[in-house]
What we know:
four-stranded antiparallel sheet, globular, 8 helices, about 525 residues, mainly beta
Amino acid sequence: DSRRLAFYEIDERHMQDYYLTTDNVETYTALQVERYPKAGMPNPYAGLLIYDLDSRQLLRVDVGGDRQQYVYDVQFTPDGKELLFSRTNRRQDTLEVLAAGIAGGPPRLVVAETQPTWQNNKPLMQFLRDGKRFIWETERTGWKHFELRHLNGSLINRLTDVAPYPVGSLVRVDEEAGWLYYSAYSGDNPLNAQLHRVRLDGSEPERLTSGPWHHSAFHIAPNHKWFVCTYEAVDVPPTTALFTDRGEQVAVLATSDTAKGQELGLVPPELFTFKANDGTTDLQGILHKPAHFDPQRKYPLVIRVYGGPNSRGISNRYEPADPCCEYGFLIATIANRGTTDRGKAFETATSMKLGTVDIQDQVDGVRFLAQRPYVDTARVGICGHSYGGYMSVMAVLRFPDVFQVAVAGSPVTDWRNYDTIYTERYMRTPRENPDGYREGSCLTYVRNSFQGHLLVMHGLLDDNVHPANTWQLVDAFHRENLRLDLMVFPRSKHGLGSGSEALQWEYLHEHLRPEPGSVPGSSL
């Protein structure tokens, strides 16, 4: 209501400085100094204050808890009478949303969530019009679902089914009609979002879409008798259609024109499924092929990877072509365990062991594709940036029999180098998890038997993944009398910018060498 201002007080005086050189292409360099809490090191202390513009009084909020905790997501309640904030412990396995009175006093608990591994730091909290009730996203059952809760701390009712699949996103809330619409990954294919609805009292739950497609772009009619949505798959172009509230398609509103792709000889991508090494978990990947693909030829395979925890793996959405395939490559992306929208067990499979389960899934995906006669297992590369860069380095060092070439952009090479809030959420501290840090470090696997090709690219101004990650890897290679290829970007931060992608594909082409004529009409 423009009467009060809430703000942070951050105390970093007890923390260690980190130095980056800047002006690296000038005659004299300069220094950028920041307080960067690395895994296991002290966190800043976060406090909250409220300034009253009328009285000019300053109130310190009692945030409670451990000084090493995280305090965030600060907002006034809709009526302006309390300050809401989230608090999570350093392990980030317990989340509390608290309400502090603007006149002082200890805060009260609104809602709490706890997980045996790590808790989602920022669940959806969407208020209804009365400013007291709110829709809350919980993973208490191991699957993401919605509840209706009250600001007084009580649970009013569950909204979505406590079923073995996660909800996706909130689509629409109509309080007058009493309906809530949401997407959920409730079909046979865990990549496909389906439209659901339920009454705000939790009654009359129903799924409105079906079929082997991903559904999105939902528009609900004001009278709730109709809806419009788009459905598609990686190899099925999008169609937008009108449906009844029973999920019956009554009219096609728009389709995709694929004539140009057919003229160019583009080959639809393939969604493939294989088993993880636990023998039970289904994993998915998407394989792209060059135009005019010839199954009688052998093609080098490139894995594009990110794969970091809590990131999106792949989507079953239409992808007509990957232009980089036209260099003569097969290109695949694999959704390893640790990525999102598959339930808590799937998402936390990498907890305490980054760089093990996720890498194994990439390896097993390659081995699955290697059974096809057109995949040349002697020419397999992997590339990625940031966590994908880390995965690329780990892949070529740990599994040189599978990956012969890797290109890594701005990789974390040892988790002791990265920040507390990200690293400790998934790995805890180096003191608590020494084996996990050792086994998850690229430096552990630098051995003098390395025969592959590795290009590392890093920006000297990277204040996220510090360049020291790459320097440590280079030093480990020196100590083993090994060679790697290195490109430094003196003006770049974490994003490398212009030229890095071209260099990546030049390197992959040089060392994987697609067969001449693998792309018709090309000299590649």
